[in-house]
Amino acid sequence: MTGIQLRVKSIINLFGGINGPKKRMTLFIVVPAIIYYLILRYYPVFQTMILSLTDAKLLRKDYQFIGLENYTFIFHDPPFVKAIINTTVYAFATTILTVILALILAFLLNPLPYGNNFMRLLFYLPMITSGIAIATIWLWLYQARFGLFNQVLGNFGVHPIPWLISKEWALPSLIIMAIWGGVGYDAIVFIAGIRGIPTEYNEAAKIDGATEWQMAIHITLPLMSRVVVFIVVTSIIGSFQVFQQVFLMTRGGPLDSTRVISFSIYDYAFSRLKIGISASMAFVLFIIVGVLTVIQLRMQRHDWEL
Amino acid sequence: MANAFVLRKIKKLYLINYLVVGLVAATMVLPFVWMVLTSFKMRGEILSIPPSFFPKVWTPENYIDAASRLNVLRIYWNTFSVTIIKTFIQIYLSALLGFVFGKYDFKYKEVVFYFILATMILPFEVYMIPLYRMMVAAKWGDSYQALIVPMMFSAYSTFLMRQFMFTIPNDLLDAARMDGAGEWFIFHRLVVPLCKPVLATLISFYFMWNWNDFLWPLIVISSQEKMMLPVALSSFVAEHGTDYGLIMAGAVMASLPVIIVFVIFQRYVVQGISLTGLK
Q: The dihedral of CA B247, B248, B253, B257: what is its sign?
């Protein structure tokens, strides 16, 4: 047998251990999947890593290696530093506030005898609607003069708030919108978490004379900490990739007050065509998300050991 | 006496619960109601102080105007066909992969599985630029292939399908094999019907995700007549940003199909969230 034949045979043997038809089906789907993930996921990530060390431009083929220059540039670039800070503030503020509100909501909604399902259905609305449609609606709600919010606040004598057009209010405006969009989903997951807890604990506590509030704080909440941690970490990870709202509503402005990492990545790659710099920003995002993911996996493993 | 007291206390408690939850539910719906109401108002009425809640005159003007400026039917067709094809391919391939990972044993199975699963942690931004360059190099820029092919497989649904496969008893499959059924027959005629609930959940979720997908279609599709709905809406807003009746009509047209799908598949979406923590 020639070397090539041997190699082909050894590749087929990789999936050894099962008989004919099963093997055929396995090869039929698993091999394309491996090729797909190599070419369309792993290789591009590797390419981003390489591009981040070059001066590549979007529509030019040739580029030169410039070492870590892009990284030095972005960390000395005030707008990008601002973007990292904004994204972090956005991710943590959104997640923490949403989770607290969702927990309260879940505890209030769960015991309701009627209308439980109907109200939960309403909570899905922000989740299923396209982010762009939602951003469009809120653009109108936030409108400084004629928008619903300022008109209603005006009835109570509140001065018009410059929601999206001032650098103090723009980021909080996006956070409020994100809380509105996320609280329903989180609450629904928390209700599932509450219902997954065996009722014996609460029954025992009730016999001992515990109040509803005490049971919620001392029994239900600790028992569903797994779900809460899962939601907290996954929504921080998700919020770090915020893009649509910023793209549609503020374009990072005013004065970079809502510039976020994903928007910078997009901006540098597809408006300024400097994909070398954009790739280095993407890699920074990757490292942040990677660290958060490792924390999540650690916490879950800790859970399993218990 | 004591019982009556407890009962009264519980009722009072629920009153507060209903009040708060009802208020939140109203907050969830209000922006959508406001969107619909604004879209039916005349231009002059939208920019009036104080605002009217219901339109004084219900007018379809904004919809007619939006439909003539946006090639609505074309955009619906683009988005609908791409979304359906993409969702079908993703779920079919995930089911097949999930079946193989869940029910077969082969060398390096775990390694291959985690090799696929690990891609779940990659933010899209990390591979988007090289992916775009690949599409351009393959002369696939501004094409539907570019929207579908790089998203054919999905690690997430593969993982969920594999989990579901564990609940199907091996004896059932072996019995079918004894009767002479081939592996493809077993997958299509036995496993797929058994997976119906989880498949319905995944299909409704992926339909919504694919319909609402934004960043990749924004980058890849450049010509007006091939645009997906969210991208079309976004450039529509950028163009007519101050004509609020018009852009609300656009927003209604963009969100309606997904809301309809949600109402139809409601049961599966609800199941999906509470069972798997899907988002």
A: positive
Q: Do the beta carbons of residue B51 and residue A158 sit within 8 Å?
A: no
As a whole number, the mean pLDDT across chain B is 86
Q: Would you state the pLDDT for residue A304?
A: 46
Q: How far is CA B40 from the centre of its chain?
A: 27
What ranges do the domains of chain A cover?
3-51, 70-305
- Residues A220 and A46: their CA atoms lie apart, in Å, by 45
Nearest CA in chain A to B32: A137
ipTM of the complex: 0.85
Q: Which residue of chain A is at minimal alpha-carbon distance from B33?
A: A137
pTM given for the model:
0.86
Q: How confident is the model at residue B1 (pLDDT cuts 50, 70, 90)?
A: very low
Taking 90 as the threshold, does the pLDDT of residue A252 lie above it?
A: no
Residues A131-164 pLDDT 10s: 899 999 999 889 888 888 888 888 888 888 888 8
Residue A138: list chain B partners with CB under 8 A: 31
Neighbours of B228 (CB within 10 A): 26
Does the distance separating the beta carbons of A138 and B31 come in below 8 Å?
Answer: yes
pLDDT, greater one: B250 or A6: B250
**In CATH, what number does A70-305 get?**
1.10.3720.10
B279 reaches A (C-beta below 8 A): yes
pLDDT in tens, B120-174: 889 999 999 999 999 998 999 889 999 999 999 999 899 989 988 988 899 998 8
- For residue A162, give every residue at least 6 positions away whose Cβ sits within 8 Å of its Cβ, in sequence order, or none: A144, A169
Chain A, chain B: beta-carbon pairs less than 8 Å apart: 266
Examine residue A254 and say whether the peptide bond preceding it is cis (omega within 30 degrees of 0).
yes
Distances (CA, A) of B213 to A37, A299, B34: 20, 31, 24
Task: Find the CB nearest A45 among B105, B127, B248.
Answer: B127
CA A297 – CA A299 distance, rounded (Å) = 5
Backbone angles phi, psi at A273, to 5 degrees: 65, 15
| Beta carbons of B183 and A22 less than 8 Å apart | yes
Cβ-nearest to A37 among B119, B124, B218: B119
